[in-house]
Amino acid sequence: MHILKKYNKRRSFKSERATIPYEERNIHRKTILVFLLAGMLSLTAACDGSGLDRVTPEAEKGQQENVNSSEGWQQGSADSSVAQQEEIFPVTREDSRVISESPVKWDLSTMISPLIITEGGDYLLTGNSDSTILIRAEDQNVHLFLDGVQIETGEGSAIQVESAGKLLITLVEGSSNVLADSARYAADSASKAAIYSVCDLTINGSGKLSVYGYHEDAVYSKDKLKVLGGDYFIQAKGDALRGSDGVLLQPDKLEIEAERSGIRTVNSGKENKGTISLEAGDVSIIAGKYGMETAQDLYIMNCALYLKTVVSDYQVEGNSYIDERCLSDE
User: Fold this and answer.
1) 34 exposed, middle or buried (CB, 10 Å; 0-12, 13-18, 19+)?
2) Rounded CA gap, 213 and 28, in Å?
3) Model pTM?
């Protein structure tokens, strides 16, 4: 049974850590790392061992943890929160599909012109490219299988969805993939990220993916973003992972370095839009602003989470349900 602590609405707070003053401005990645290592680590050393130790699930099996409420805080219900999660983020069979029997195969290294996808279906991609993969599939689902793909563009996004019902990206088992945009974009470009989608975006599989957002964000979905399995390194000049309507995270491993926020949602309202739910994996976030910035609720459970941030670990407009055993100082 999850033991979650529920925090009041609209709260910006650290995970048992002191808040560090910050003036909002663009920060280069090196500045973030130097500032955090020199400043925050010295604060940690002065905090007389108040950090939380990581506790493995095995060590906690069969035990019941008492969560003491403090002023303005109250204990949340794990069962009710999990049930609510399932309503907010249903994982479909297509979200979980990692195999295709007859995909269209493209070796990007042999292509003369940029790849434009205008029909839904499964596409197995290999090879290197310096051009944007552009998707214009109206309301059809497009499923990309990445098997040793490296895209570093001279201008614009690595993958850009202008229209589709949904974009799914599968990291093929044993593969290592790199997607990087350019710092240079056309003045009239609607895209702003290495992976940019106007529709729901799901990334799954068991391979590796490194994403570099040199212009602004690394991964951006204007709808919901789901990460189901996989090993990720995400670096961004803006936000690392942004799902405007919500973010569901169940990675195997996720490492984030962002000059702004690590994970972000912006929309809220009906249908519980704007929730962030971290449910699995070893996750590390170094951010120049917030670790997680959510327009609705925040859930953290069944993971190992390390945070180093400048403003606050969390900026939450709704309620926060956090299993504090997930929080790590290492």
Assistant:
1) exposed
2) 12
3) 0.79
Tell me the C-alpha distance between 240 and 290, whole Å: 11
From CA 51, how far away is CA 66, in angstroms rounded?
18
Handedness of CA 51, 57, 58, 59 (dihedral sign): positive
Nearest residue to 207 via CA among 117, 124, 140, 263: 124
User: CA-CA distance, 320 to 308, in Å (whole number)?
Assistant: 19
Structure tokens at 15: 């995970």
Please tell me the distance from the alpha carbon of residue 175 to that of residue 33, in angstroms, as a whole number.
29
CB atoms within 10 A of CB 2: 19
CA angle 276, 301, 22 (to 5 degrees): 55
Q: What is the pLDDT of residues 172-206, one digit of tens each?
A: 999 999 999 999 999 889 899 999 999 999 999 99
> What is the rounded distance in angstroms from the CA atom of residue 243 to the CA atom of residue 141?
18
- For residue 280, pLDDT beyond 60: yes
Q: How far is CA 161 from CA 117, 121, 199, 259, 327, in A?
A: 9, 14, 8, 24, 35
Sorted by where each begins, the domain ranges of the chain are: 5-46+73-328
